[in-house]
Structures are given as C-alpha cells and as structure tokens.
Amino acid sequence: MLHQILFIIFGLICVAGAVNLLAQRHPINSALSLVVVMASLAMIYLLLGAEFVAAVQVIVYAGAIMVLFVFVIMLLNAGAEERTTGSIIALALGVPGVIALGALVGWTLISHNQQLGGVSVGPTNFGKTQNIAHLLFKDFLLPFEITSVLILIAIMGAVVLGRRES
Amino acid sequence: MNESILTLVTFLPTIGAVLLMFMPRNDRMLRAVALIVSLVTFGFSLYLPIQFQHGVNGFQFQTDKVWISLANIHYHMGADGISMWLVLLTTFLVPLGVLVSWKSIHDRVKEFFVLLLLLETAMIGVFLALDLFLFYVYWEATLIPMALLIGMYGHERRVYAAVKFFLYTMVASVFMLAAIIYLWAAATPHSFDYATLRQLIAQGNISTGALQWLFLGFFIAFAVKVPLFPLHTWLPDAHVEAPTAGSVLLAGVLLKMGTYGLLRFNVGMFPAQSQHNAAWINTLAIIGIIYGALVALVQPNLKKLIAYSSVSHLGFVVLGIFTFTQAGTDGAVYQMLNHGVSTGALFMLAGMLYERKHTYEFKEFGGLATPMPVYATFFLIAVLSSVGLPLMNGFVGEFLVLSGAFQYKALYGILGASGVIWGACYLLWMYQKVFYGEIHHDENKTLPDIDRREQISLWPVAVMALVMGIISPYWMKSIDPAVSGTISQASQARVAPAATNLSAGGQK
Amino acid sequence: MNPISIDQYVRILPELVLTAFGIAVMMIDPLLKPSASRRPLGYLSLLGTIAAMGATVVQMHALATDPSFGTPGWFGMVRVDNFAVFFHMLIPAISAICILASLEYLDTQKINTGEYYGLILFGTVGMTLMTSAVELVLIFIALEISSIATYILAGYRRRTASSTESAIKYFLLGSFATAFFLYGVALMYGATGSTDVLAIQRALAPGTPSLLAYVATALMIVGLGFKVASAPFHVWTPDVYEGAPAPVVALMSTGPKAAAFAVMLRVLFATTGTGWFALIWISAALSMTIGNFGALIQNNVKRMLAYSSIAHAGYILVAFAAQNDIGISAAIFYTASYAAMNVGAFAVVSHFASGGERYVSIDDYAGLGKRAPLLAFTLTIFLLSLIGIPATAGFLGKYYVFTAAISAHSNAMVWLTIIGVVNSAVASYYYLRLIVMMYMREQTVAEPPTPATPSMRLALVIAAIATIWLGVIPGRTLDRATQGAADLRPKTTAPSADLKAQQASQPATLVK
Amino acid sequence: MVPLSWYLILSTILFCMGVFGFLLKRNIITNFMSIELMLNAVNLSFVAFANYWHARAVQGVTPAGVEKALSGQVFVFFVMVVAAAEAAVGLAIIIAVFRTRETLNVDRVNLLKL
Amino acid sequence: MTDTLHLWVIPLLPLVGAAINGLFGRHFKNAVVSAVALLFTAASFAYALWAVLQALHMQLPYQGSVGTWITAGNFSAPFGFYLDQLSMIMVLVVTGVGFLIHIYSVGYMAHEGGYYRFFAYLNLFMFFMLTLVLANNYLLMFVGWEGVGLASYLLIGFYFLRDSAANAGKKAFIVNRIGDFAFLIGMFLLIQHFGTLNYTGIFDALKNADKFPIDQGWGWITITALCLLGGATGKSAQVPLYVWLPDAMEGPTPVSALIHAATMVTAGIYMIARSHSIFNLAPHALEIVAVVGCLTAIFAATMGLAQTDIKRVLAYSTVSQLGYMVMACGVAAYAAGIFHLMTHAFFKALLFLGAGSVIHAIGGEQDMRRMGGLRKKIPVTFWVMTVATFAIAGFPPLAGFFSKDEILGAAYTSPHGGHLLWAIGVITAGLTSFYMFRLWFMTFFGEYKPGAVDVGEEAHSPSAPAHPAHAAASHSHGHADDHAHGHGGVHESPWIMLAPLVLLAVLSFTGGWVGVPKFMGGHNEIATFLSPVLESPGNVGAERLQGAENGQLPAKEEEHAREEWILAGTSVAAAALGLFFAWFLYYKRPELPDRITSRMHGLYLTVLHKYYIDEAYGLIFVKPLLALSTFVFWKGVDQGIIDGMVNGAGTASKGIGNELRRMQSGNIRSYAAWVALGGAAVLAYMIWLGVGK
Predict the structure, then answer these.
(1) How many CB atoms lie within 10 A of CB E219?
(2) Is the peptide bond before B460 cis (omega within 30 degrees of 0)?
(3) DSSP letter (8 states) at residue B450
(4) If DSSP codes are grouped into helix, strand and coil, which group holds residue E398?
(5) Pick from B456, D66, E297, E519: CA 20 to 30 A from residue E429's CA?
(6) Using N-to-C axis directions, what is the helix angle for C301-322 and C236-243, rounded to 10°?
C-alpha cells in the first residue's frame, strides 16, 4: 500500500516534470524539469528495489548528462524558443500518431495486466550491486569492454566537431 | 570444335572489344582491327552452316556447363536451324556496320567500335542461349550498347531517342524476367533450361491462368522489341536518330530478337496459350502491316519511312509465326533473315546519303539518279528486295507467310497480302522522291557517287538479296525441321479449330 | 579460472584488429604536423581494414575446421557463423574502398584531421560486431557505435551548413528511432524474459506469443526500419546523404545498412512467429515506389542516389518478405552487390565533386565521358548495375531477390515481384539520365576535372571489378550467402522448411 | 504490491511525452532532451521487467537463470552509457550547427529538403 | 524429269545480256551494248525456235526442271519450265516480236542517254516475260508476272527526270500490284485446295469431275477464278485497273510497243487461257470475265476517240483490244483470244513502232494536231502504218479481221456470250476503226502544221491529274531534246528502224491466215493447234460445261456457216463505217470536229479526261488515304495517342515523384512525425494481428 502511494507520488512528479519540460519555452527550464523527472525516476527505481540503477541514474543522468546539457545551453546562450510553425505535419500527423501509439501500447499493457501480475519487492537479491557486477563482468563482459570504443568515438567526435576553427 | 564453336563465335567480338579498349587512339588502326575482328567472327560463324546436320530437328553444337550452381543456372548454348541463321545474319551484318561507319564516325572512334562489338556478342548470345537466365542476360545486354550507340553517335534528338528506346524495352523486358523466374520456381528441381521448362509446361503442371500471365510476360517483352503495333513508337525515333551502323543492326538484328523470342519462347513453350491468343496477336500484326505501311507512305523523312516499313514488315513475321503452319512459320523465319538483309541495306544506303547531305528529309533530295547512278542502282535493288519482288529474298518469305496465314484463316491471308500493295506504294514513292525528277538543289548535282569502300559494303547485301531469293531451299532445309519442331505442339493444339477455319475459307 | 580461451578472441578478431589499428591511428595523429595531409593515416587504416579481412579469413578457417566455433561465444554474446563471417568480410571491404576513396577527398576538401580514419575504423568495429552479436545488449551497443561514428562523419565538413545539418538530422532522428528500438527491446524483454536473440527465438517458437511480443516486434521494426532507410522510416535519408561528405555517404549507405540488415535478419527471423510479413510487404512496396519515383526528379546526384538507396532497401525487403531460405540468402547477397555498386558510384561522385563539393548536380556531369573516360566508364558500370542490367552485381542481386519472392509461392509475393520489376524499370530512367549526361551531352563545367589519384582509381577499379564479378561469377559469394542463410535459420524451424520444400515440389497445387 | 502495469504505463506516458517533446519543441537542445526522456522511459520499463522476471526466476518459472534474469538492469546501465556518449556527440553536433547557422531553432535547419 | 530441251536457256539468255549490259554497259560503246542485247535476244529467239521444233515431235506438254525454288513443309515450287502449244505461240511471239523491237530500238534510241540502261532493262524484260510464259507453275509464272512489272516500271520511268514519267512508272507498278494481290490470293486458294501450284498437279486434279464438279454458285473455284481474273485485270489493263496503261506511254516508244502492246499486257490473257480448266468450272467467273472484257473494250474505245496524243490513242486502242481478248476468254473461246493476242502483237507493235517512227521523224512531237501530210515525207512509215491500221480496223484479209471475227463469232454463239456482247463488240470495232483512221488521216493527210495548238490550253491536255502540264505534248527532256538538234526537217527513219516495221507489216498482213475459219474455207490451223491445250467449246471441258442442250450444234453446220458470214460482214461493215466517218470528219471536213466538240463540250471533256476516272480514283482513294495516314494515323495515333500515352506515363511518374517528395519537407520535426505515424501504423497492425490470433 505504501508502495502504491509512493509510486503514485513519484509517478505524478515524473509526469509533471515531463509536462513542464514540454511547457517551458526556455531550454534551461526544460533541462531542470528533466532533472526532476530523472530524480523521481531514481526514486521509483528504489521502489522497485533496483538500488544500483537508482544510484547510477542520479550520478550519470542527473549528474553528468544533464550538467552537460546545461553547460551547452549556457555556452550557446540559448534563449527562449521561437514560435515558428515549420512543421504542420508534426501537429497534424505526428500528434495523433503519438496518441495512437501511446494508446495502443497502454491498451496492450492494461489488457495484459492479469497476465503480468504484480511487482513485489521482497527480500531478494534483485538490486544488489554484487549480482549486477557478476553479470556485468562475466556474461556482459564483451559489451562492457566494447563500450570503451563507444566512449572513445564519442570523445573523438566531440573533439572533432567542437574544435575551434583553425 | 563442335562444342566450343558457339562460345567462340559469341565471344570473339568481346575479345576484340577488350583488345580495342587497350589500343591507342589511332582511328585507322581501331577501324581496321574492328573490321578484322568482325570478319574473323563471320568466318568462324560460317563453320555453323557447313557443319550443321541439315534436316535434323533439335539443337546442335550444344555446350552445357554449370554457371551458377546454386540456382541451377547453366551456360547452355545451342543452335538449331532458326537460330543458326540468325547468328549468321548478325555476323554478316556487323562487318558491314563497321564498314559503313568507317568515315561517318570520327569522334570517339574507339568507344564506337567497342560498343559495336559488345553488341555483337550480346546479339549472338540471344539467339544461342538455351538457358532462360542466360538468354535474359544477353537480351538485356543488347540494350546498353545500342542505347549508347544511339545516344552518343546519333543525330539531333539522339538523347530522346536513346532514352525512349531504353525505357520502352526495359519496361517491357522486366515482365519477361518475372515470368522466367516464375517458371524457374515452378520447375522441380528448379531450372532455367529451355527444354526442361518446355516439357514442364507441356505436362500441364502449371495452371492455365498462370500460363496466360506467363505468356503475356514473355509476349510484351518481345512485342516491344519486334515492334508490334501499338508498341512501336520507339522505333521511328530510334532509327532516325541512330548512326547508320546502329540502324542497320537495330533493324537487321535487334528486331529479330523479338520475333525470334515470340517463336522460340511464346509459341515454343506456350503452344496452347499461343493458340488461345493468336486471334488478337494476328490482328495486331495485320494492323501493323497496314498501319506501318500507311504511315510510312506519308513520312517526309527517308529513315523514318524505312523505320515504319520495318513495322510493316515485322508484322508479316509475327503473322507468320502465329499461324502455326509450316509454311507461315518457315516464311516468318525466312522473312526475318530477309528483312535483316534488305532493310539493313536500306539503312546503309540512307546512311551514305546522310554522309553526303547531312539530312534525311526528302525535300532535300530528288533527281539523285543522275549524279549517283551506281548508288541509285544499289538502292533500287534494296527497294525491290524490300518490296518482295519474286526472285529476290523478300518474296519467298512474304509468300510463305501469307500462304500460311491464308491457310490458317483466309481473312488474315487476304488482309496481310494487301501489304504487298502498300509496300510497293511507299517504297516506290520513296525511290521516286530521292532519285527521280529534276534536281532542285544545285549542290545535289555534284554529289559524289559511292566510292569503293561503300560499294564493297553494299555488294554483299545486294548479292545476298538475290541469292536468298533464288536458292531458298538451301536455308529452308535447316529452317524447316527446326520450325516444325518448334511449332509442333502449337499446331497440334490447333487441330480442332483448324477444321472450322478451313471450311470457312473454302467450300460454302 | 580463465574462461576466456583463444577461441573466444578469434570470435572477435576482426573487431580487435580494427580497434588496434584505430588506436594506432589516434596515437600517430598527434605526431603529424597539424597542417599535413593525413594520407599516411589513411594507408594505415586501409591496412587495418585489410587486416580485418585477414582476420575474417582466420574466422572462416576456424569455422570450417571447428564445428563448435559456430556456437555462441563470450557467454552467449556473439555467434560467428557463416552469416556473420559473410558480413565480416563485406564490411571491412566496404570500409577499405571508402578509405581509398577518402584519401583523395580529404586532401581536396583540405581536411587534415586523423580522427576521420579513426572513426571509420571504429565505426567498422561497430558494424562488424552488429552482424555477429546475438544478444540485444551487444547489438544495441554495436549499433550505437556504428551510428555515432556515422553521425560524426556526416558532419565532418563542419564548416559547411549542409554537412552539419546533415549530421544533426541524422543524429536527432537516429536517436529518436533508437529510442523506439530500445522500447521494443524492453518490451521484448518483458515478453520473453531475455535479451538473448536465440533465447527469444526459443521463447517465441512454441505456441502463440503474447501480445506484448507483437508490440515489441513492431517497435523494433520501427527502429531497424529507420536504420535501413525503408519506407515510411526513410525520410531522413535524402537530406542526410545530400549533406554528408560523399565518401562518408558511400560508407553509410552501405556499411551500416548492411549491418542493420544483418541485425534485422537476425532479430526478425527470431520473431518469425509474430507474423510481420505484411508489414515488410508494404514497407518493401512503399520503399521501392517512393525511392524510385522520388529519384526521378532529383537534380543532385547525391540526393538521387539517396532516393535510389531507399529503393534498394525496398528490394532487399522483398527478399525478407519471401520468408524463405532463398530470401535470406538473396538479402545477404543483395547487400553485398549493392555495396559494391553504390560505394563505387559514390566514390566517383566524391572525386568529381571537387573542392567544397561544388559539382554534385546532374548537369555538371555533362560530357564527363569525354573529359574523364575512366571515371565515366566506371560510373556507368555502377549505374548499369544499379539499374539491374545483366552481367552486373545489381542484376544478379535483383534477380535473386525476385526469385526468392516467387519461390514463396504466394500470390502476394508475385504481386510484390511485379511491383518490384516495374519499379526497377522506372528506376532505369534516372540512372540512365546520368549516363546520358556523361556520354550524350556537351560539357558545361568549365573547369577541367582533376585527374583521379591512383588510390581513387584503385578504389574505382576494385568496385567495378567487384560489381562485374558478382554479376558474372557469383557462385562462391552466393554459396556463402546460402550457408549464412542456413545458419541463420536454426534447425528448430526445420519442419516448416521441409514443408516449403514439399510445396515447391508440387507447384501446380500452389499456383492454381 | 504495485501492479507491474502501473510502471509500464508510466513508462509509456513518459515515452509519449518524450515523443511529443521531440515533435513540438523548437529548440534543438530541448528536442534532444526529449530523446533523453524517451530513453528514461525505456529504462523504467527495463527495470520493471527485470524485477518481474527476477521474481519469476526465483519462483523457477523461467528456464533462464536467476542471475541472467537481471539482464534488464544491466541493459539500463548500458543505455545510460550510450546516452552519455550520445549526449557528448550530440551536443558537439549542436554546437557545430550553431556555429554554421547561428540558430538553435530546429525549424530553421531545413536547408536540405525535397 | 530429264530436261533434254533445257528450256531454262531461253529466258536465261536475255538475262545474261541484261546482266552484262547492266553491270558493265556503262563502260561500253553503244555499238557493243546493242550487239550484246541483240545477240542474246536473237539467240533466245533462235533457241526458242529450235526448242519448239524439237518439242513438236515430243509428247506435250514438255516439262523440265532445274531445281527447287521455294520449299516449306509439303509445299514446294520448282524452277520448272513447261512447253505446250500455248506457250509455244507465246514464246515465239515474245522472242520474235521482242527481237524485232530490239532491232528497232537500236536506231530509235541511238541518241539517248542511258543507252546501256535501256537495253539492260529491255533484256531483263525479255527474261521475265519468257519466264512467265514458260513456267510450269503459278509461282514461277508470278515471278515473270511481277518481273515484267518491274521492267515496265523501269522502262516507263526511263526518262526519270520527268516527274510524269516517274509517276507513270510508279502508277503502273502499284496498279499492277493491286492485281497481283488478287493473283496471290488466287494462288493461296490453289495451294489450299491442291497443295501445289504446278499446272499439271492442278489441272490433272481438276479432270476428276466427281471431285471437282462445275461450280454453279460462288464456291471457292469461282473465287479462285475471280482472283486470277483480278491479276489479269491489272496486268492486262482491264476495267477497273486499266488506268496505268495510258500513262505508261511516258516510256520510250519501243517500250510501248514491246511491253505495253505486244507482250506484257497480254500476260493476263495468257494466264486466263492457261487457267482455263479452272475458269471452265466456274461459269459465273466466266460471265464476269466476259463482262469485264466487253466493258473494257467499249470503254477504252470511246476514250480513244478524243485523244490527240498519238501514243495515247494507241494506248487506249491497246486497252480496247485487250478487252476483246479477255472477252474471248470470257466466252470460253480461249484459242480465239490467243489468236487475237498474236495478231494484235504484230499490228499493235507495228503501230507503235510506226508511231515512233513518226515521232522520230518530226522531232519528238506526239500531238497529232501538229502533224498532218506526212504521207509524202515518210512514205515507208506511211505504208506500214496503213497496213497496221487496216489490220486493227478489221478489214479482210488482214490479220486483225480473222482474229477479231473469231472473237465476235464466239461471243455471238457461245452460251456464255450472247448477242449483247456481240453487239458491243461490233460497236467497238466500229469505234476502233474510227479512231484509228482518225489517227491515220490526222497524221498522214492534210497539211503538216507543227506548232498548231497551244500547249497550255486546258482542254487539250488530257493527261493524268497529277501532272497536267505534260503528256499533251510530252516534250521529254531526254527524248525530245536529243532529237531536236540536227534534224532540220521531217525525215524518214533509218533502215534499222524501218526493217522491223516492214517485217511486222508483212506479219500483220498475213498473220491472220493461220486462223481462217472453216466457213471461209480455211482450216483454222491455230485453233487446231491449240486444241490439245485449250478445251474450247466442243471439247471435253465444253461438254461438261454446256451439257446436252448444245450437243446439236454440229448438226446445223450449214446454217451456222451462213450465220457466221453475216457476222463477219457486219463487223466489216462497222469497220467501214468507222473509216467513212473518220474520212468525213478528218479529211473531208476537218473543221467539223472542233464544231462538234464545242457543241458537246461537256461530253467531249468527259471523254477527253477519260471519264475523270483518274481524278475519281485520286479523290476517292488516294487523297483520303494520304490524309488518313498523315493526320489520323501518324500525327493522331502514333504521335498523339501512343506517344502521348508514353510521354504521359513519364510525366505522370514525375508528378508522382514530385508529390512523394513533398514528404521531404526538410523539417526534422516533420520527419519525426512520419516516423511516429509509421510507428503507430505498424503497431496498430501488429496488435490487430496479435489480437486476431
């Protein structure tokens, strides 16, 4: 019961943050709304018992990535967004499309409610860092290692694209 | 030798083309090498009729090697009485094409002859391929060199003509591809082999509805190539714009690929469907005969007139094929050869005139018999051959076709025979426009008559036009059995309607 | 305990080799003068790609000698089977030709940063890994490696508005699509409890899959469809290809696409039970039609080829839709043949574009046949192949695709084939336009073209030979593609394969 | 007990909000943030499913091992890594775009079209 | 079939001559050219004579084959030659008259350009004509049939610089082709029913009366016969295809003599006679043959009345005489037809050659109104022309009398004929006599008046509609100009021209004596000679034809003879009447014709313009056809509909492309919208699919 209440609270905060992200015209506000979303998601992860993920969520997402965003917003001195109407299609086709998409997925999930059952957070080792580490450094060793290449090219890309004009 | 002669004949020109590609840009040498290569090819191709076992039905000189084993694609080549002579026609016309291009092509000479020789390979291959995949490869391969020849060396509207030619044929032949693949998939084990597929269809393993579509798939590809009314409008444009050698080969050989295909594949493989569709096909053929002639009659342009005359003449061939009678189909095959010779000659002659006048418009000519008597004589021979004068080649084919058509259905024979009148009309009109009357343009008074090279290129066709008109049995002895083998199923399929037709045309 | 044997390393040998060379490139780059040409790095990375192909040969050998090699390695992460090996050979080869074509391009465009080659090499790592990965985690990461590398490469001419626009479009939409893919993966995980492709396959095989699996498949199709540029997820392609540097387009229209198709094959055939047939059918028909008709009116060569690549994706999807072994091998083969011709075509474009990519309009190609015969000739071969003229890779690929379609013995596939052949006929028009320009029109560009450098010539000749080779003697390649297809379809689906064979032996019953 | 579908529907809502953001926001950076929102939504699904499957594995319902059932969580980890890398590259690209066009309005980035 | 006679040599000899002259003649002197031409023609004549003499002792018909020409399946046509009484006459007439005309041409063409060409063509003609008459099957006959058409085309268009000549040649060929078309159909019918085109094959089969009864209706035999008639109509210039022959006079005069009078145009009669077995079985066809012949005869004769061009008069006369011959065939009097064919060959050749001599004498003038009084100036020509004129008019005992009388008699008595036919024949005879004597008087009597008539005068230019400026006074460039110089006044032709004239005059005089009918005490040798071939009434075929009711004819022989005398008298009277009117109008009162013509201007013009038949053909067939081809077919269907559709498909494709690429707005958000929408669609489908399961 407590779980449910907490879920509803943080869920609402999530959705509110997302709505605010959409509603705000200035990117910095949007960015901060996103941080809110992420933070409350971290709470939900905790509700699910995924401690490690919750921690990483806060550290990597809210901490690193969003800082980067804010930094770039500052760097480019981005102002409030213009009200241009470059895309009627996005409104006319995209929005109904997304609503349909969401409705369909949602309908599926609801209709599968019985099948899926509930989520219980009991005394399992579900979110234990140790278990995840086991998985990460054994079964998922190769992806983990390969991630280095990913990060390497990300760095290279940032360097190449962001380099000052010579 | 018997095994490899077809490969040799087919790919000698390719070897020559590769050779040319790596030669320095010395135009004289390039021409000479191209001529030698084409002549050597012709020489080797003569091996075929010499070694051919006449009077035997079936393919000879066969070679059958696995090409792409996975899809059971074979390099299967073979010649019967029909294809052998069409190959000969090709190898006979290409050296002439080289000769007539001697001076008229002076820019990008190397590319020209490379394309010409590649075209030769593809054309020969089309007639010899017995694997449908291989056939399609050759079939499409003719397209590019020809389109390039038109587009690169043609006249004012060459690009339009080249693109039109390409698209027309391309669009049509993809349907054939679909049909070929369908047949492949229907065969167990999958196969592209002509004989296998023919048998497959004969066994009745494919539903009638599917067969009808397959028939149409093949038919449309061939009908465009022939070209059968109303799919013919690419032809006048292509011809008018093409360089002389291009026109010669286009009319002489490429159109025959269409009729050859109709005979070999449509009639040969789909006898029942051929019967079933014969009525409208023959109607189109007859419309083509008359329509082509009538339109030719009012052309203000020499080459266009000849082009429309091809529409008319090829109508005879199609008519002959779809009568499924021995005489008609024999005549159609013979007419293919004849048309190659006579229309080839006409295009060569038109080209020579173009070299002198740089136009094909009739109003620029007139009275040329006076300054150019030798030329006029050759032209007359070509015209007469085309008109179908007895003792010239054209007559034999036309007569047999019409006789066959008459046996098939009297009305076809009668309507077709009216083409005889139209042919005379437009060809004589053309001859008169060019050669008779007074000279209205002063520069025409001093036009040089054809020189020795041009004469050398014209003599072979003139002689062939006569020889083929006089000793046709020489050809017929190999064509006859091949034709009877090809149409046997179709003519059997016709037994029932035949009786009614005969009585309709006969006693009443 | 050392669970990681040498065997395991052989399974990722090409990736290791490429990574090593990539690192070497990055290490040497700072040693060169900032303004100096990065040609040496290019040669080094070329060596790297060749070495990667060598590594693939080692894999082939291992595969041939050791039957257990084809089983998943790295704790079920990668599976180097014939299917993967095919792409392991193909993708480094594509990269090699792109590098060859880039050598000259970078000098012409005065780009002096070695990261270019590094990105290509690392990107290649991602692409090759995509083809052998059987775990969605690894697939996702490899996909991202290849994607991010190409995002960056697309914006490599960062001083040009079009190039950066290309990059941002590609990046934003790519990430957008990736999110869909990821959502699909998540739902699939939810439906099956695993992210292992083989496990998913096992989970879905018996009985009817849950509705969740259908939703998951749909979302994954969206993501993968975007990557292979199939309609209606193709919209980004023309803009991105037009703006990106030509050699990069050569790469990204072939390499990542081939890899994405590989992933698509693996993933979709793992979820066969969800019946995506009609979707692929529609997507194939749409792609072919939109691609070809859209290309008809383009005046920019790169954009035209972009539309054409949409169309070609459509042809490959036709093979998918056939849902049989021939279809898979046809799709595999088509990626190879398409790579050969398209890389070549873009290589020519990149040479002829000149400094600042000035000459990319079709009209600029007028008279090229006279000015640069070799360039024009090779481009003609590529274009003919793209049209699908026999004796070229394009024809055989197309033929094989249609064969697969018709072998499926369903009327829907026959119709798809007809749409396909008609489309390929329509397509011939715009390719022909370029040929016409080159050979049948007089020159309009005043500037004489710079002669192609030997490396460019080499690239073109290799691509041309590959194009002809695949068209004339495709036997070996086709065999490999077939083996790959066989490996992709595990024996669990054997009964249905037998059924197909049975049906094939009685065509009469099917076509009636 | 919170029904699993609650988490999933929240995930769906967030995902759709992300998509809306991408479709409707004019600022490129905000667009990019919308994508991050979508990724977060996906992550939520992953974690929820991971929990679900882990519970099933503990019950011994699935053949996959108890440990392997956690792969959803690992996936989230990798998604975050990728998101970070994407952010680095994406923002670099945004900077490059800004340099060439002096705007961050996505509607004005339409040089290439038709 | 051993070919001991080697008949193929007969046609081949002129061909060799033609080949030699054609290929190398350009480099020869005129003398060499003529020597070659004459040599080979003479050799051919001599060989033919030898062969005929040999064959008379052999079993006829004699056949020889030198090989197969066309073969397809069971059908085959050989290069086979055939000699029987009929072809004997034909071959001798052709080679004999041909040879004479060759000789004449040497003189006549002496100053012409293209001398070698002329003789090459002439020899070529001989080759084809001989092939025609010697062939042993219809197909080979068709070779000659078309071949002579070709030669005719070439020779008519000999003065090709003149548009009228070129047009005339073309017209001849094309109109002949129309006939050939019918002939072809006839052959197809024969193939269909007999499987062969060999004479023996067909005629032997036809002897089987059970299998081939007389076709009283309109069965295939009648159709076949009519098709063959169609062929003959073209070649022998019958109604309605006669129009080419008058125009054919554009050719050099010897050509008119040889081809358009003596030999080629009679091919149709030969063919009908050859095919009499078929015609005999088709009474309806025979009736039509008779009607066609009769109509042609009277029609052409009336048109001949008003012509002022000397050659045109002769041309219409030829058409008219050919009508007689066809009429003869139509009443199953084939032998009479052939007889008239032979005598006509003599006197009409003579007339043309004589006319040529006249034209030659006065420098190329062909308009009779500018002649006159030439009797004294060119006496030899005058005398031979006199013989010919009397012969054609049918005065006894000249050749024309006997043959014409034979035909008229047959027309009167034959069951197919009737009195109407006979009456028209007699009227025609009178008309013939009138216009021939008109020619005779205008040319040789009165005063010589060169330049008497304005050339441009509309009413006096009765030429083909296509080229009104010519023909009335066909001043040819090649011909007239060459003659104009060096001929100060009127002069007699050289002996090389006169010698053949004289010979022909003798033949025209005596040629009829081989056919003196029985009632005149003769033996009608020619009919007897031909009787084994031609089953004329009284023979087997006729019995079958007539049945029993006519069986009593021989019994009333005496009455019959009296009747025949009356008939002969009538026709002579008609001729005399013609002579009288001609004398009165053109000798006695030469101003009267003008008055009459101006009184009956419309009628006169109609006759002068040949009833406007050419114009009608032009208006009804040619012009609409050309317009149809140009505007409906070429510009309409070809360029409009078909190309319009093709180009339209192209434009439409581009239009579709244009619409499709509007998807590509360049806006990222729109692109995302497409992706989202597509995603929704995919999702919807998949869920539908999933729910459905």
Answers:
(1) 17
(2) no
(3) P
(4) coil
(5) E519
(6) 140
Our CA angle for B154, B15, B13, nearest 5°, is: 50
Residue with tokens 């290129």: B457
**What sign does the CA torsion over A12, A14, A15, A16 have?**
positive
Tokens of E663: 């998807």
Question: Is C181 in the D-facing interface, judged by CB distances under 8 Å?
Answer: no
% of chain E with per-residue pLDDT over 90? 0
Short-list B199, B189, B239, B486, CA closest to B354 = B239
Six-digit token pair at E378? 């060119």
Q: Are B228 and B314 in contact (CB under 8 A)?
A: yes
- A66 is written with which tokens? 């969003």
End-to-end CA distance of chain B: 58
* Angle of CA points E75, E80, E85, to nearest 5°: 125
Residue count of chain C, please give it: 512
Among chain B residues, the shortest Cα distance to E644 is held by: B233
DSSP state of C510: H
SS3 content of chain C, % helix, strand, coil (to 5): 80, 0, 20
Residue A29 φ then ψ, to 5°: -65, -40
Residues of E in contact with B398 (CB under 8 A): none
Cα of B323 to nearest chain E Cα, Å: 14
Which residues, including other chains, have CB under 8 Å from residue B499's CB and lie 6 or more apart?
A: none
The tokens for C381 are 């071969």
CA angle B386, B388, B392 (to 5 degrees): 90
What string of DSSP letters covers B145-188? HHHHHHHHH--TTHHHHHHHHHHHHHHHHHHHHHHHHHHHHHSS
- Mutate: best of E677, E688, E689, partner A, most A CBs <10 A: E677
Dmax over CA atoms of chain D, in Å, equals: 59
**For range A141-145, the mean pLDDT:** 89
Contacts of C125 in chain A (CB under 8 A): 146, 149
Whether there are 3 or more C-beta pairs closer than 8 Å between D and B is no
Can you state the angle between helices C82-108 and C454-472, rounded to 10 degrees? 150
Tell me whether residues C215 and A147 touch, CB distance under 8 A.
no
Give dist(CA B237, CA B251) in Å, integer: 13
What whole-number distance in Å separates Cα of residue C478 and Cα of residue C12? 24
Reported pTM: 0.88
Nearest to E672 among A90, A100, A101 (CB): A90
Range with the poorest average pLDDT among C45-49, E507-511, E672-676: E507-511
Half-sphere exposure of B374 (CA within 13 A, CB side): 17
Interface residue of A9, A72, A99, A113 to substitute, partner D, most D CBs within 10 Å: A72
- Give the span between the Cα atoms of E305 and E47, in whole angstroms: 42
What subunits make at least 3 CB pairs under 8 angstroms with D?
A, C, E
Spatial distance between the Cα atoms of E370 and E357, rounded to a whole number of angstroms: 15
Which of the four pLDDT bands, split at 50, 70 and 90, describes residue E467? very low
CA distance E571 to E429: 7
User: Average pLDDT in the E665-674 region?
Assistant: 87
Give the separation between CA C389 and CA C394, rounded to whole angstroms: 7
* DSSP three-state, residue E66: strand
Q: Which two tokens stand for residue A67?
A: 């800082």
**Cα of E179 to nearest chain B Cα, Å:** 9
- Across chain C, what does the average pLDDT equal? 85
What's E259's DSSP letter? Answer: I
Mind telling me how many Å the CA of E652 is from chain D's nearest CA? Answer: 18
Q: Which chain A residues are closer than 8 Å to C184 by Cβ?
A: none
Give the count of Cβ contacts less than 8 A between chain C and E: 97
DSSP 8-state symbol, A165: P
Token readout for B497 is: 């309607």
Whether omega before B230 lies within 30 degrees of 0, making that bond cis, reads yes
- Residue A77, Cβ density class (10 Å: 0-12 exposed, 13-18 middle, ≥19 buried): exposed
